[in-house]
Amino acid sequence: MTAPNFLKAGILTIVLVVLSVASWELHLRSSGLRPSYDDGESLWADKRAMVYMPSDKATVFIGSSRNKFDLDIKTWEDLTGEKVVQLAMEGMSPLPVLDDLAADQKFAGKLMIDVTEGLFFSASPRNTSEPKTRIAYFKKRTPAQRFSFLVNHVVESQFVFLDKNFFSMNAMLEELPIPRRGGVFALPWGCPIEFGRVTFDRQNIMTEKFLRDTSLQNKVTGLWNFYRSISTDKPASGATLDSFINVVVKDVKLIQARGGNVIFVRTPSSGPYLMGEKMGFPRTQYWDRILLATGRQGIHFEDYPATAHFQCPEFSHLKQADAIIYTQNLVSILQQEKGWVFPHKPMSRP
Fold this sequence. Notes:
alpha/beta, Rossmann fold, five-stranded parallel sheet, two-stranded antiparallel ribbon, 51% helix
């Protein structure tokens, strides 16, 4: 083949690749999807580095997935005039992150801790391993890793198909209906892509398609039921519960001693999920005890008519429209009842 033919073949290959990628991207966008960020250790570490902002400029949030769905970051920042530092992780205990912040002598800011009892009071390694991994990554990340993150941010913000959790080769292979080998643990299915798209600020947002499609909602509630069916964890009690409380008290005191401010929040759940949480983790034995032991304030969603009525699409997380209302009320409660001061003037409760 002559040189001109090689050139033509190369040009044709490039054109075909560009057309294929463009077609795939347009197809994904036509289904209502928008770019979503890889919420891995790099993005988490980027936010972890922000906790040193002055306490009148930012609030740090730790917890599990409810914090990521239920706190509408734009609403919070518009109302308070300060930055949100979102460090919550899906399906994980916040205690390793609390330990990390308590041990960090440079952290003396405002901290809001989401209490999802089944995760907060869990000693299972599967609920603490990922936070520990991300903390270690933050402390050891190299200049090359930071630069790579910045480049990835620019690219990820433009293309839907780069979502590796759903469109990488491994992710798509996982979706093939291949029978699982005997004795190998595997989830019956994964969360649908429409369940939660991730912003650069680490907020999870349900898509409109998810809110319209009850089959997608049932797929997620089916996963929650599957997790409960295989779980061997029992609610912490006795000496085990005492150890949880003691660790939290110690960490909170360390943060307070440096001038920090800590508050606990119980975010909404509903339906059978809430019923099960009430049965497994009676409020007087868990939520009330945390507040009493630490001497800190708390905001329980059931204590306020404006937040007690929410119905979660899959029983555990708020859709964005409700997250906006919940966040508005959360800010108002903090300002009017809990004495929190923000750069913006206090607002009346919705």
